[in-house]
Amino acid sequence: MTRSLYLSNVRLADGQFVSVSSVDGRIEAIGAHVTAPPGAHLEDGGGALLLPGFVEGHTHIDKSNWGRPWYRNEVGPLLTDRISNEREWRKTSGHDAAAQSLALSRAFVQMGTTRLRTHVDIDTDARLRHLEGVLATRQTMHDVLEMQIVAFPQSGMLVRPGTVELLGSALTEGADVLGALDPALIDGDPVASLDATFALADRHGKPIDIHLHEPGEIGAFTLRLLLDRAETMGMQGRVVVSHGFCLGALPERERDALLDRIAHRRVALLTSAPPSRTVPPLKLCRKKGITMFGGNDGIRDTWSPYGVPDMLERAMLIGMRYDLRRDDDLMIAFDCVSEAAARGCGFADYGLRAGARADLVLVDAASVAHAVVARPVRKLVVSNGRIVARDGALA
């Protein structure tokens, strides 16, 4: 049975009033003189601003406490403290990755996110248990939330024998991307760690998304090794470096040389724009042709009490971190959670154009900049041609 939707009286970012028709989950036409398909469900947008569905480029839905009682955070200050604390807590608390990932996924959809990349912990304690929970959530939400799953060795890879094999099993079972974590500071051997990561990705034909928290010269050293392997293995355009804190702390000349190499190898960068860490230079990256996009990272988990599944809020935080004040600059912040995020993650058929997947968000805002700053209630959310939320509530 054909599923059709006709959305009239909505505004594009340039102020033009248009209508949108979609058939079977795809935008059929968008413009001032579009007519309704036969039998379409009709919706009057009331002059609201039309945005594309939002893209969450980096989160951890398997470990969230969203909707659960408050978690009292008394963890130590080191990265290894947080890793060990989380692994033990998940093992002893009864935390359910299936239930929590489903609750958070629904909240994302309610607030306008229609594409999402999530990292899922794979380790020798939990093995594939968390992955199985998130795979169940992906199946449940598949018609309204396009999800990529990253098999992520949160506790390290080489330091926990058997993890490489588990990561391979995760990729076979349905993970889309191979994750990695701080090859020097966690695995203790960046050469061997990156060799194992790229070999595994090559064997399974999967892209890579690496958490790189390593600071300064250590991070730069790891990044150079990674870029060498991306070129040698022919993985240009198939690698994301998440966080990349070192790129915000290097001397200008060294930083710019690394950015040129990143651009040449078409490596994308992900930032959550944390206020407490150095961050890659957003405008300079864009000027050099590097795809840089945004994500929440963890949301209400044992690592941090912060975060909400609202990509307009994340765009606002990106704007604040990078001192984006002009309306045109705030368009950059929104791009980080829309077009750039879709491009960086490799989500196809994205945007407000004929042929794209019909993922649409309506908000009462004067402009995109206004929407980012005010984060208004989502008047309407359409995912894959279906109305999934109305006036801030799931439909």
TrEMBL record:
The lineage of its organism: Bacteria, Pseudomonadati, Pseudomonadota, Betaproteobacteria, Burkholderiales. Gene3D superfamilies: Metal-dependent hydrolases (3.20.20.140), Urease, subunit C, domain 1 (2.30.40.10). PANTHER family: BLL3847 PROTEIN, CYTOSINE DEAMINASE. Pfam families: Amidohydro_3. InterPro entries: Amidohydro_3, Metal-dep_hydrolase_composite, Metal_Hydrolase, Metallo-hydrolase_Enzymes. This is Cytosine deaminase. It comes from Caballeronia novacaledonica. One of its GO terms (molecular function) is hydrolase activity, acting on carbon-nitrogen (but not peptide) bonds, in cyclic amidines. Residues 44-389 form the Amidohydrolase domain.
